[in-house]
Predict the structure.
Amino acid sequence: MLRAENLSFQIGGNRLIDDVSLTLLPGEFTMMLGPNGAGKSTLLKLLTGTETPQQGQVWYGNNLLTSIPLATQARQKAVLSQLLSLPFDLRVEEVVMMGRYPYFDLNPTSQDKQIADECLDAVGMFSFKTRGFASLSGGEKQKVHLARVLAQLHRQPDDTSLKYLFLDEPISALDIHYQHQILSLVRKLASQNMIVFVIVHDINLALQYADKVILIDRARIYGIGTAEEVLTEAAIEAVFKMKPWFITHPETGRRVMIC
Ligand SMILES: Nc1ncnc2c1ncn2[C@@H]1O[C@H](COP(=O)(O)OP(=O)(O)OP(=O)(O)O)[C@@H](O)[C@H]1O
């Protein structure tokens, strides 16, 4: 389990996160939504240790995140941030292999190479393996970075430890086919003893995929619960300043939002 207790974070007197507490459970696919500037990326950075809160604590199981050695964290936690560019050009296969750095010293083993290939294949990018990363389209770059974090958390057959996957808008550049392919893939990972925490903007994707929704507004949590509980007409109107309409999907019977 991941537990965040009373997190607050400010920069120059500006409160980016204000007294946020939450619990993330393995097996649950958690999606966080909220308006631009609400604090989603900042909260993800606090949950992953990229930023340190001025107040509050983050626990991974029984350990404070700050007490877990970085080498251990690198094998249990992977983060996909919004920044997709790299400071120098690498081949696609080299970018994915970065996900295996926690597992080898100088040179990747044949097993590392096989895992990297499998992860590239899982996101439909195997045929781009030897291409220069800089030459890829925005969506292709996003898929390669997804392959990198999948490679980082790839399990050995005897590894049953809890893993943590954090994705900040991982499908923002993807076409509709890959949006669903990637969300189906990470939902499956959640069911394999993994905590999966994903930031998205698409309310309908959250209604379709999320086990738990966290709605954040102006640095504070507005609601936590199932999508049905949290993404209500009143909440969407209050947080996004848009009046939503809900219709019923003719085949699945679930709610679909239109504006
Ligand atoms: N280094 C910084 N200095 C000052 N303000 C910052 C800094 N980083 C972020 N902010 C501000 O904090 C607020 C929250 O930013 P954050 O990136 O967490 O929002 P977000 O909910 O992820 O937004 P978006 O949906 O646009 O990605 C924003 O108003 C942002 O401008």
